[in-house]
Amino acid sequence: MIGLLLAETPALPLDEAGKYVAGAYVVFLVLIVIYVAIMASKLQRMEKELRELASFAEHRADGETAASEREEVSADV
Amino acid sequence: MYGKGLRPLSIATVVAIAAGLSLVFFYAPLDADQGFIQKIFYLHVPLAMVALVGFIIGGVFAIAHLRSGNRKWDAYSYVSIHMSVIFGVAVLITGSIWAKASWGHWWVWDEPTLVSFLIVFLMYATYYPFRYAIEDPERQARYASVFAVTAGAFVPLNFMAVRMAQSLVHPRTFGTANGGLPGSMMFTFLVCLAATALLWVTLVKLELTAKSTSGQLKRLRRALDAPAPGGGGSRIAPEVS
Lengths: 77, 241
What we know:
The structure holds two protein chains of two kinds. Chain A is mainly α. Chain A has a domain at 38-77. Helices cover 88% and strands 0% of the residues of chain A. Chain B is mainly alpha-helical. Chain B has a domain at 37-165 and 199-210. Helices cover 72% and strands 0% of the residues of chain B. Chain B has seven helices and no strands. Chain B has helices spanning 6-27, 41-68, 71-103, 112-125, 127-132, 137-164, 183-225. The longest helix of chain B has 43 residues, at 183-225. Chain B is globular and about 75 Å long. Residues 237-241 of chain B have low confidence and may be disordered. The interface between A and B is large, with 34 and 39 residues.
């Protein structure tokens, strides 16, 4: 694929000029990658927090169910 | 809410960037004066234009915030400015590379276009410490909006002042003296400009979605942290930093 692309490329002057042009485009790409990496780490943090909240909510729901069952049993007695 | 339409927007951005890069390297002719170096133009100029327009958009959102008092507009303003500052970093770096390749210097201090962009960039770099130095959220949003409106008004004034300055060093993209860009170059440039604008919009939307999700999580934490009915008073772990 890359070979085909390079074959189609109209004689790119990959000497001094090519170095600078590649540098500029690589800088742009690196900035985008850094930004995406920061967003990914934020997303991971949020996922961790959401998991923690979900497990807390489940525990609380279980506790409430157990408490209401105990109340029903004591009322029957 | 903010995440709606993010997926098609992201796909459109990727397609536009791929189309732009293909046109730059396979379609647009080499510049007669600068040769291959001129390819940086298709990256540097759209980034600069989108960053400057982004600053103005941040100011417009800030006006909406000051008029309505709705914090949503403050979030829009903040994220617009934030993204434009990131684009500004790319503009300064790619501009320096282009300057080194064409003029032999990484930076030229007597060139108004470069220095004026640096001034705008540095002005917006002070937005963060200014904003986060204020603890009260209401005051923080209000003062930041005033800053965004003032700075946003400065951007077009600065642009016009530079245009009026008589300098022949920095190339004029749409100058009329030499007939402007040829058709193929102009078409490539417009596709690159559209791709960069789409990238800006996508990243702003992504950032807003992340901020909104984070806010919703805080709300959920507060709601769950409230004592359970019937006492108990169970508390959840402190927020994940």
